[in-house]
Amino acid sequence: MIKINENYLKLEASYLFIDIARRVTAFTDAHPEREVIRLGIGDVTRPLPPACIEAFHRGVDEMADGATFRGYGPEQGYAFLREKIAEHDFKSRGANISADEIFVSDGAKCDTGNIQEIFAGDTKIAVPDPVYPVYVDTNVMAGRTGTAEDGRYAGLCYLDGTMENGFIPALPTEPADLIYLCYPNNPTGATITKDQLKVWVDYARENRALILFDAAYEAFIRDESLPRTIYEIEGAEEVAIEFRSFSKTAGFTGTRCAFTVVPKACVAYDSKGEKQSVHSLWNRRHGTKFNGVSYPVQKAAEAVYSEAGQQQTRALVDYYLKNAALIRREITALGFECVGGENSPYIWIDGKRDSWEFFDLLLEKAGVVCTPGAGFGKCGQGYIRISAFNDYEKVQEAMSRIRAALAE
Ligand SMILES: *Cc1c(COP(=O)(O)O)cnc(C)c1O
């Protein structure tokens, strides 16, 4: 008899986006004449930068010619891309990361979800609340938790984010081996300073723990004092893995290219307490279960680092940042407290009422779709997330509608 992995039965069905879609459909059915503006999604809306498109096309043409055709590439990614990443994203920031410490993949979602496989079944996991759901659900699937009650799984260590701590949680008070951090944060838009990040790196070093640092929104950082990579913090290469993606940086959500940095100095321990190389384990895992990102896609990603690509991706991110600044300004003027919207495409707003109540109000009175914070964890209750991924004109219209709705 074939049996299932019963850990999957512990997963709380995520009704968040289904529920949003249901409420939006009910609204548009009832008011077909009203145009709904979607500021709820975590997906980009602008096309790929021209430099990437040109390189993408050239890559496809090479595949069409016997002389330049390529079959399987290296599982870890082509050297042309890994070297550019190491140079531009790390060495230029004073972070000593080399090309062979970079693993190119088809997404930071997959990587943040898969990485837990190389750690022990009894690893104590610490996750922020509110959180990107992938970190939690993949550990539930792997059997590292009990069942959920009140939206929280038994056995997980939740790190509470609040307006008071600026959504930078305090260190865990119970032992934690594997800690997920994401800055600039999804969903809150909060950013972390070097001093604040150093507290976590020091904790990990003192407690032989490991940090999984999701930097998918690194390109949105404009404040030069903020760390662009965790490896700007001294000693982080021993205790941190970093996840990056071209999704939000260069509009690759539908093109698929990302990378994970596993420094050779990064260690975890076997049952005898002996140090083991995390790089070797991830290399083994990646090579066994992954066969590389498509060649034209890696060429398109490489173009991000060309002079034109750098300028175009910066302009692309600036476009969303301008939307974010507008949202933040308007929301603040309306008297709400918020975080994010600077160095981040997300604005996290204290609605001073139930998340879904605020969601319904914005939908019904303003025809604007946001994301209820309660969908990201217990600490998200009372908040909503507004995303800057849309056209500037739509954002302007949405904000003036929200202003009018709240004045009623
Ligand atoms: C969008 C996003 C990613 C990127 O995922 P991809 O699979 O590379 O598209 C990773 N982490 C967070 C928190 C995100 O919001």
TrEMBL record:
<dbReference type="InterPro" id="IPR015422">
    <property type="entry name" value="PyrdxlP-dep_Trfase_small"/>
</dbReference>
<feature type="domain" description="Aminotransferase class I/classII large">
    <location>
        <begin position="35"/>
        <end position="402"/>
    </location>
</feature>
<dbReference type="GO" id="GO:0030170">
    <property type="term" value="F:pyridoxal phosphate binding"/>
</dbReference>
<dbReference type="InterPro" id="IPR004839">
    <property type="entry name" value="Aminotransferase_I/II_large"/>
</dbReference>
<dbReference type="InterPro" id="IPR015421">
    <property type="entry name" value="PyrdxlP-dep_Trfase_major"/>
</dbReference>
<comment type="pathway">
    <text>Amino-acid biosynthesis; L-lysine biosynthesis via DAP pathway; LL-2,6-diaminopimelate from (S)-tetrahydrodipicolinate (aminotransferase route): step 1/1.</text>
</comment>
<keyword id="KW-0663">Pyridoxal phosphate</keyword>
<dbReference type="GO" id="GO:0010285">
    <property type="term" value="F:L,L-diaminopimelate aminotransferase activity"/>
</dbReference>
<dbReference type="GO" id="GO:0009089">
    <property type="term" value="P:lysine biosynthetic process via diaminopimelate"/>
</dbReference>
<keyword id="KW-0808">Transferase</keyword>
<dbReference type="InterPro" id="IPR015424">
    <property type="entry name" value="PyrdxlP-dep_Trfase"/>
</dbReference>
<protein>
    <recommendedName>
        <fullName>LL-diaminopimelate aminotransferase</fullName>
        <ecNumber>2.6.1.83</ecNumber>
    </recommendedName>
</protein>
<keyword id="KW-0032">Aminotransferase</keyword>
<dbReference type="Pfam" id="PF00155">
    <property type="entry name" value="Aminotran_1_2"/>
</dbReference>
<dbReference type="InterPro" id="IPR019942">
    <property type="entry name" value="DapL/ALD1"/>
</dbReference>
